[in-house]
């Protein structure tokens, strides 16, 4: 196992199941690695694949392995592909394409390069376009000899039932808040206690997401959101502070993170509330879920988005006051 894979928390059960399967008489050819984005499924897949393809007496190369095929989102278009080829940052397509699966299948007609086994990793398999998923299903139904598939799934319910039925599932559980705090202390020692709290609240058990939140510096945003939800914002001053904390031109990534942070604030308030307060919480959470679904593709004005988030949170305090009248 590589150092990076070994450093992930919560993988012990997955490693135990994987190695039991490797030690058995007949290793299953299809695996789904299921869990939240950011819990280390990709690192596990790459490390586990190297264990599977390694054979005694055959030297294994460092770095990229010729018998491990890693398939993920391609560049968005030809322009972005040229940026990739030039070593520049480039934008990804939203889906794994059918052409990628067909090209993979052509490669699978040949024998593995070094030994008798090879591994195909699809990351994330739940982002395959429908044609790609149907094409992959044919390979899962009649896998080439010595070929094993590892499908990384952040949302396993989006995979075709026929794909799920042909694979074994390795589950990667939510990481506890205490373990998340230890990961952040190790990986992001510059983070303040408030920043770590915000990251842990928003990441919902995903260390990778928590580290991303720390890098976006959302500690002050989180504190203001909690104030708005608790006290309301009748004079709009807190919403103004929230907009200032987000910045004049927040990146799309920061906007999406702010929505997730607001959802975390609402979810936290659901613990221990009385029945009459629950409908407002549920409605606000549903509105934020809808906003999160629209944000990746809608061209929202950043300032208006922040105000909308603040208004949804302020409605919680107003509904609580009304319920107490």
TrEMBL record:
Region annotation (Disordered) maps to: 56-87
Q: Spans of biased composition, class Basic and acidic residues?
A: 64-87
- InterPro entries the record matches: AAA+_ATPase (IPR003593), DNA_Rep/Repair_Clamp_Loader (IPR050238), P-loop_NTPase (IPR027417)
What Pfam families is this protein classified in? DNA_pol3_delta2
The domain of life for this entry's organism is Bacteria
- Per UniProt, residues of the AAA+ ATPase domain are 27-176
* Protein name (database record): DNA polymerase III subunit
Q: Which Gene3D superfamilies match?
A: P-loop containing nucleotide triphosphate hydrolases
């Amino acid at each position: 196992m590589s150092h990076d894979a070994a450093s992930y928390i919560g993988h012990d059960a997955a490693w135990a199941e994987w190695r039991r399967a490797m030690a058995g008489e007949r290793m299953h050819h299809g695996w789904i690695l299921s869990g939240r984005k950011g819990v280390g499924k990709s690192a596990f897949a790459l490390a586990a694949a190297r264990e599977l393809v390694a054979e005694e007496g055959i030297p294994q190369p460092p770095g990229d392995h010729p018998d491990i095929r890693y398939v993920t989102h391609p560049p968005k278009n030809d322009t972005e592909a040229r940026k990739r080829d030039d070593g520049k940052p480039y934008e990804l397509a939203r889906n794994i394409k059918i052409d990628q699966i067909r090209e993979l299948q052509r490669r699978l007609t040949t024998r593995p390069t070094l030994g008798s086994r090879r591994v195909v990793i699809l990351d994330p398999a739940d982002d395959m376009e429908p044609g790609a998923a149907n094409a992959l299903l044919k390979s899962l139904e009649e896998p080439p000899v010595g070929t094993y598939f590892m499908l990384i799934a952040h949302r396993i319910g989006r995979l075709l039932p026929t794909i799920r039925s042909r694979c074994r599932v390795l589950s990667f559980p939510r990481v506890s808040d205490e373990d998340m705090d230890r990961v952040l202390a190790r990986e992001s020692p510059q983070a303040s206690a408030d920043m770590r709290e915000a990251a842990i609240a928003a990441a919902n058990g995903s260390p990778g997401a928590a580290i991303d939140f720390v890098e976006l510096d959302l500690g002050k945003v989180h504190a203001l959101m909690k104030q708005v939800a608790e006290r309301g914002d009748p004079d709009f001053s807190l919403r103004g502070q929230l907009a200032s904390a987000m910045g004049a031109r927040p990146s799309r990534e920061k906007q999406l993170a702010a929505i997730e942070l607001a959802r975390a604030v609402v979810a936290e308030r659901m613990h221990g509330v009385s029945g009459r307060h629950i409908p407002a919480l549920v409605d606000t959470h549903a509105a934020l879920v809808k906003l999160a679904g629209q944000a990746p593709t809608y061209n929202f004005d950043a300032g208006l988005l922040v105000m909308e988030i603040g208004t949804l949170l302020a409605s919680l305090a107003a509904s609580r006051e009304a319920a107490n009248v």
